[in-house]
């Protein structure tokens, strides 16, 4: 028997439907409509597609979508002025500046100019600190989506051994913090980890977030473990290319208890959790309880 395949696409659709239900009740009970502002500087093709999809899914959830597209040569001061305007706009509850930014802009300064309460990416230094100290924070979307899938699959995570392979600020570090909050025993592994294979084999929960295609083979996976594959890389396959994750899916499938595929696993959860974060930010801004299960 092979592992259960965790359907991220289906799970994300359920999250979006839940968000839409809460948005409808906010409108009917409080006359409030959550608003998400997305800022794109330049015309990176991948970012264009991503921003377009965000806009579509934001509107489908019943939220207001505010898109701001700036030329690639926009001065940083102009971008900061736009962010200040959005910070002051009561109709905007979430602000996301699409990365990467042009080389002449300081991404860290731009992110930290966003009101932390509207920082639906969870990248502001204040939210990083709040998450790290176990307080109420806006949580980065991809780790939040991973946690939702783990909770759905395993229920109570307390006491489980969790290994996060990767230490990025976007996924690895916040993922480790979220698992600590769930009372897991957490190891963060990386390029300098000694005997990475042995470390991975000890994991009840294995989260791979490195960006190296198929670096984790099936014999690194503990039998019955739950594997969350965040990585996504494009590789040559004959005269075509295809997407693969950090885990060698084919060799891990007979070993793991459950595994996310690539594509169709973690990826769809990112925008779903962006909508969930926008809903959370809107509720908090209006003194309302954020819906349980959609935040931490």
TrEMBL record:
Residues 6-121 form the Tetrahydrofolate dehydrogenase/cyclohydrolase catalytic domain. Residues 140-284 form the Tetrahydrofolate dehydrogenase/cyclohydrolase NAD(P)-binding domain. PROSITE patterns: THF_DHG_CYH_1, THF_DHG_CYH_2. It catalyses: (6R)-5,10-methylene-5,6,7,8-tetrahydrofolate + NADP(+) = (6R)-5,10-methenyltetrahydrofolate + NADPH; (6R)-5,10-methenyltetrahydrofolate + H2O = (6R)-10-formyltetrahydrofolate + H(+). Its EC number is 1.5.1.5, 3.5.4.9. Keywords: Amino-acid biosynthesis, Histidine biosynthesis, Hydrolase, Methionine biosynthesis, Multifunctional enzyme, NADP, One-carbon metabolism, Oxidoreductase, Purine biosynthesis. GO terms for cellular component: cytosol. Homodimer. This is Bifunctional protein FolD. It comes from Paracoccus halophilus.
